[in-house]
Amino acid sequence: MDTTAVVSTAVKPPRSRSRLAGAFRHKSLAIGVVLIVIVLAVVIIGPFLNSHNPDAVNPGAAFDAPSAAHPFGTDSFGRDMLSRVETGGRYTIAAAVVVVLLGGVVGIALGIVAGYFRGAVGFVIMRLMDLLLAFPGLLLALTAAAILGTGLTNGVLALAIIAVPAYARVAEGATIEIRNRPYIDAATSVGVNPFTMITRHVLPNVRDDLLVLTSSWIGLSALWIAALGFIGLGVQPPTPEWGTLLAGGQDYLSVAWWITTFPGIFLALFVIGTNLIGDGLRDHFDKTL
Amino acid sequence: MLRYTARRVGALIFLAIGISIIAFSILRLIPGSPAQAILGTSGTSKAELARLNAQLGLNRPLVIQYLSWVGDALRGNFGYSYSQKQPVSSLLAQNIPPTLELIAVGMVLTVVFGMLIGVGAALRRGRLTDTALMAGSVVFLSLPSFWLGQLLIQVFAVQVHLFPVVGGTGLAGLTLPAVTLALGGIGLTARFVRSSVIEAAQQPHVVIARAKGVSRGRILLGHVIRNSLLPVINIVGLQFGSLLSGVVIVEEVFSRNGLGRLLVDSILSKDYPTVQAVVLLIAVTYCVVTLLVDLAYRIIDPRTATR
């Protein structure tokens, strides 16, 4: 074995696969993964196994209680709730993932730039993030929805705006912390340019924090896209998004409990799953707790 | 402390200016002319549009428009709601009290139950009770409030006629909405309190007290819980924000009057002056409360000033 091989094995970080396997020893992570796998299986595979069309209206079968033909019952238009829950999950979960991707990419880029270069650029970026954070929770998304209008795309954009400052803050904090370490000075002194520095040395180091943030934000985004759909400012009926399904059953709570119960259970399981995964990852990465 | 307060108040003023610019922009960023948007689709003659344009000064420079809007807002004049046929300020006056009521009860529930569960879990750390309480907390903070509200209506109002289904007034009508609003915060607070208590219990002075022979109960009350309460003040500020945003959904589920429902209704009916006023009011209130919490924290725990 020559010297370079020895050096490269010596500095190689521990294999990420074995690290993740170790993380599975955390109960919350394991339970979270199981929940998410169940929900995703129902949402992804379910529609292929179900003969009902989620949009097929059948006035004769309105408000049918759960039965062998309709395991989750039917809604006020006689549509099969099982197929609507399955298809609806695709909208809710896909929207949540896109929200996190959009908000995450923009937020991480802004945060790293602010943390790495600091100075006036960093100051302006982070004060803008503070301004966005001044709007509690959904308020910013509602403001955006007032401007953009309703619908799936606008709802996703509105929520992505909320995710941006959350990611920017974490990325900035982690970048500043790493920037002050000696090895960054060492890399600068041998002439590594900022772009390489960020992609090679900063990004891999903020990865853990961002992974934790992302798993809870996917759940939160699912919750919020459904909330927007529920209050009528997100996905519009008849699209079977989980939030619109819950809104559609709101008027029939006393006659048809199944319309709201099943979409709610799946949304809750999904959010619980993402939160448990986030907790598990946090425990795994953060040895201090 | 004085310098810190002055700096924070200065930052708050800049933040409030930023918020007001965003709220002001709502009406300018929507597609189409603002006057058309304010009047809505009904009854829009050319003369009416021209009159409103002149009245709102929409033909003046944007900066002047902004300044006059802010000036009016500071004097409590938020314009006229064409969809509700009354001044926005009187809409606000009607809707602020029920929302404050809901948030106040929600906050009390959050703090009381969050602390009880958190301290309970910390005391039984690593045992079954701890696991059960923490699992419950994750479920609480993950449940969609709009679904939880529906479940509570089904169980307690439809099945067990314990509470009025919707629109009830007084304490009975407030119970279900407040529980729905608070449950997520209870979960978050409980987790926070638990780790805070555990951290406080590991401080050297607790070990010394124990070595001196102070009783477990006195150590717990006098040394552990007292110290662990400090960070909880912070979470109260954060919780206020999530309660402020949570009322939007809770008021909608329970058909309760309030700022949240006013905001959603006015977005849906394109009543933009009302949207602007509610957005401005909620965001500025949130910032002021955050500042007050930070200042209170400094007074209660002067150590944070040196950190």
Write the layout of secondary structure elements.
The complex is a heterodimer of chains A (289) and B (307).
Chain A: H1 3-11, H2 16-23, H3 27-49, H4 81-117, H5 119-133, H6 139-148, H7 152-179, H8 182-189, H9 194-231, H10 242-249, H11 258-285
Helix pairs in contact in A: 3-4, 3-11, 4-5, 4-7, 4-9, 4-11, 5-7, 6-7, 7-9, 9-10, 9-11, 10-11
Chain B: H1 2-29, H2 34-39, H3 46-56, H4 62-74, E1 80-81, E2 86-87, H5 88-123, H6 128-142, H7 145-159, H8 170-201, H9 204-212, H10 216-253, H11 259-268, H12 272-300, H13 303-306
Antiparallel strand pairs in B: 1-2
Q: Mind explaining what this structure looks like?
A:
The complex is a heterodimer of chains A (289) and B (307). Chain A is an all-alpha fold and 289 residues long. Helices cover 73% and strands 0% of the residues of chain A. Chain A is built from eleven helices and no strands. Chain A has helices spanning 3-11, 16-23, 27-49, 81-117, 119-133, 139-148, 152-179, 182-189, 194-231, 242-249, 258-285. In chain A, α3 packs across α4. With 307 residues, chain B is mainly alpha-helical. Chain B contains 13 helices and two strands, in the order ααααββααααααααα. Chain B has helices spanning 2-29, 34-39, 46-56, 62-74, 88-123, 128-142, 145-159, 170-201, 204-212, 216-253, 259-268, 272-300, 303-306, and strands spanning 80-81, 86-87. Chain B has a two-stranded antiparallel ribbon with strand order 1-2. In chain B, α7 (145-159) packs across α10. The longest helix of chain B has 38 residues, at 216-253. Chain B starts with a helix and ends with a helix. The A-B interface holds A 28, 127, 130-131, 134-139, 142-143, 145-147, 219, 223, 226-227, 230-233, 243, 246, 249-250, 253-254, 257, 260-261, 263-264, 267-268, 271-272, 275-276, 279, 289 and B 14-15, 18-19, 22-23, 25-26, 29-30, 138-139, 141-147, 150-151, 153-154, 158, 165, 195, 240-242, 244-246, 248-249, 252-253, 263-264, 267-268, 272, 275, 279, 282-283, 286-287.
